[in-house]
UniProtKB/TrEMBL annotation:
It comes from Streptomyces iconiensis. The keyword Hydrolase applies. PANTHER family: ISOCHORISMATASE HYDROLASE (PTHR43540:SF1), PEROXYUREIDOACRYLATE/UREIDOACRYLATE AMIDOHYDROLASE-RELATED (PTHR43540). Residues 28-203 form the Isochorismatase-like domain. Keywords: Hydrolase. This is Isochorismatase family protein.
Length: 217
């Protein structure tokens, strides 16, 4: 199941973790926080996620012909939220105070193929579901599978995957489409998602899945 060794794998398998999730015919692609503050290393909160941006862009382009909804998320705080004490998370993750509304840090990476009709979810916490209308939007779209990409793997991607499955959506995470600031947290988060919350799959499998979907009517 992982690269953590046979003892770890056998422990999780014995406990009944890691079973495959079902793949529906009406997925939605949720691209989590691929904003400049995370994808560019010139920002204190960021790292070079060029490969993740490229892999995710390919997935988005494959989703379009099948009519798969593409939903983008971004973390953005008002100046009052960033500097005040109303957002408890910022007491722990102080670097996130730089993600202020209207700043370059909260702009989507310009290399991404966003379209005007795509839904944009602005959030204040790690999960794209917490405090947002995302679950209701997915239900309204008839979504039966959540394909989750973005950054960071150990933070907002993992939190979104957890809340997606808790909201009733099977989760797929293409590994090449998720990135983090460091390899260790990235690997650990993917292991955790694969064991408990969704299927971590390769980009090729994700592309094949999207391309095999029936054409929209």
């Amino acid at each position: 199941m992982s690269g953590y060794g046979s003892e770890t794998d056998s422990t999780y398998e014995r406990a009944g973790f890691g079973a495959p999730v079902r793949r529906g015919t009406r997925p939605a692609l949720i691209v989590v926080d691929l904003t400049r503050g995370f994808t560019e290393e010139s920002f204190p909160t960021g790292s070079d996620l060029t490969e993740v941006v490229g892999a995710t862009s390919a997935l988005v382009e494959a989703a379009r012909p099948a009519g798969v909804p593409v939903i983008w998320t971004a973390i953005a705080y008002s100046a009052a939220e960033a500097e005040g004490g109303s957002v408890t998370w910022l007491e722990k993750a102080t670097g996130m105070r730089a993600l202020v509304e209207g700043s370059a840090a909260v702009d989507l990476d310009p290399r991404l193929p966003r379209r005007p009709e795509d839904l944009m979810v602005v959030k204040k916490g790690a999960s794209a579901f917490f405090g947002t209308s995302l679950a209701a939007s997915l239900t309204g779209l008839g979504t039966d599978t959540a394909v989750v990409c973005g950054a960071t793997t150990s933070g907002c991607v993992r939190a979104t995957a957890v809340d997606a499955v808790q909201s009733g959506f099977p989760v797929l995470v293409p590994r090449e489409c998720a990135g983090d600031r460091a390899q260790g947290p990235h690997d650990a988060a993917l292991f955790d998602i694969q064991a408990k919350y969704g299927d971590v799959i390769g980009q090729t499998e994700a592309l094949d899945y999207l391309r095999r979907l029936p054409s929209p009517t």
